[in-house]
Amino acid sequence: MAAVDWDARYAAKKYCYGKLPNACVVEAVEKAWLPKGRVLLLGEGEGRNAVYLAAQGYACVATDPAPAALTKCAKLTKARGVHVETMQADAIEALGTGPYDCIVSVFCAYRTACQRKEAHAKVMGTLWPGGRFLYVGFGADHGNVERAVPGPGPDRLAAPDTIVAELGEFDVVEATERERDLFEGPFHRGHASVTCVVLELPQRRSFGAAIDACAAPPVIEFETGDALLDAAAPLARHTMRHAAGRCQLCWSAPCACTALFGEAMASCAPRLVLVAHPSELFRTTASAPLVPVLIRRAAFAVWGVHTATIDAALASGAAILFPDEAADAIDAETWRGTIIVPDGSWARAQAVVAALDRRAAHLGLERVRRLALAEASLTSMHSPLVDALHAGSGRGRCSTAEAVALACREGGDDEAAAVLTDAVERLAAKVAAALPRPPSPRTRAYDETSWVAALSLPSTTAPAVQGVRRCVVCGAGLARADALQAHVRGRRHRAAVARTAFDAGAITGEPMPVAAAAIFEAFSTAALARAPAEPPDAALAEVHPPPPPAPE
Fold first, then answer.
1. What are the residue boundaries of the structural domains of the chain, listed by start?
2. Which residue of 303, 455, 507, 526 has the lowest C-beta tally within 10 Å?
3. To 10 degrees, the CA torsion angle through 369, 375, 379, 385?
């Protein structure tokens, strides 16, 4: 079959495929297969499906490589009194934009089956979590249909199973092939075997795909002025290398998904977009994964990696869940739309928020509005996760997932709040069980004061251990991985070294310099070298090596 000159075909006065929507698109709307939101239409031609969906309340982006098609789409849009955005692009180019709530492909004219497969491979990365893809095309049996409308060559006919396989790990909502009568303009008039497939991007698979993208993040020419945020791409790449072998969802090795997540999921009114500081990726104590795994439609992004997702959230008029003097209170009215949730320590979350404002200005948008938790919610909060990490510090503090749970409760999403709260308690128990237990301060039959003093010199000359934020010797949690070198010089650490050494039978007499050096090497330096480094901390040590400690 000769290639079609689509510009010449669409230059005709008549609408080649009519002005009415495809029957499968109408069925999808009537059966609520397509969630309301932003829709990308591939190879949309003259706009018949786009104007129908726009009239149903969808925000439509109609794409086609033929300028003549988009001109007629604009005319039809004006005649119907609806708004449809148009984009001159083939399917593969169009699938590089987004994300979208739905993607609709109705008789999209791919040149080859390989081109169709290439396009379908990009669908997952173009949908929001929970988004859906509607495919309508000529089925595998079309060549056997009597008085059939002209269709593509046999290699481009596809059964439902073929389309499902090309899309990958999607949940199947509908997948049928049956003979239909087409009355769609002069070129689609007659019988046809039509494949109709509706697929949904699973929440957890979407999160996994977002994590996959961190291994090869795109280069974005945008500077925030923050050294770590501007090094996000190499930091993410190094983190992924250090995280090899860990579960993509729970960030643990071995996988702890069953213990942490279970099967419970919940919905909340707004779409949540969690934007993580790149230094938090794959941190085993992070609560961030709980949100995109357990809350439907919640998206996960890392600053400097998932820029398209962040830009789409900002362009939608999102608010940021972060305190501010001009912040709105959370209630049933404000807990709507899109809510961006920064993830990281307080200082790093502040850096993410500042970067979001800077990015919004770069896009020509107004300063992002804020939503703040009620003071009463915070003062009554007692975080089991913060307590697990820093005993006695949980009062009035909360992790990222706990902040989202509080916001859900204030906004009326009680089920989502309960699901997240339960999950944080399970995470706290997991963290507490994995923490090192320092030696007890019980009285021992040796001169501890003298030994602690004797360990001072070897502590200052010990080689630095990079990428560790939890001291396995004394159990201390450190604010930064590069704080460990200073920490090992402290009295608390040296006392734990001495107690551990005594309990192991390594201290048998008075402290001597050679013995003290050997004990510090065995019970501090070697122990810390064996300690598991958090992937982002190990990556930080490579991307931003800490400065040498100041001389005493």
1. 6-201, 205-434, 448-543
2. 526
3. -20
CA distances from 448 to 117, 383, 499, 501, 502 (A): 70, 36, 8, 11, 9
Residue type present at position 321: L
Q: Give the model confidence (pLDDT) of 243-293 as tens digits.
A: 999 999 999 999 999 999 988 899 999 999 999 999 999 999 999 999 999
- Spatial neighbors of 118 by CB under 8 A, at least 6 apart, are 92
Helical packing angle, 400-411 and 414-434, nearest 10°: 160
Structure tokens at 401: 């997932």
* Nearest CA-CA partner of 381 in 414, 409, 415, 347: 409
What is the Cα–Cα distance from 132 to 135, expressed in whole angstroms?
10
Nearest to 154 by CA among 135, 140, 172, 167: 140
The third-level CATH classification (topology) of the domain covering 6-201 is Rossmann fold (3.40.50)
Q: What is the mean pLDDT of residues 45-67?
A: 97
Cis amide linkage into residue 511, ω under 30° from 0:
no
Question: Cα–Cα distance between 540 and 228 in angstroms, integer?
Answer: 9
pLDDT digits (tens, 9 = 90+) for 183-220: 998 889 889 999 999 999 999 999 999 999 999 998 88
Distance of CA 480 to the CA centre of its chain: 24
Q: Tell me how far apart the alpha carbons of residues 205 and 240 are, in angstroms, rounded to a whole number.
A: 17
Spatial contact of 322 and 330, defined as CB atoms under 8 Å apart: no
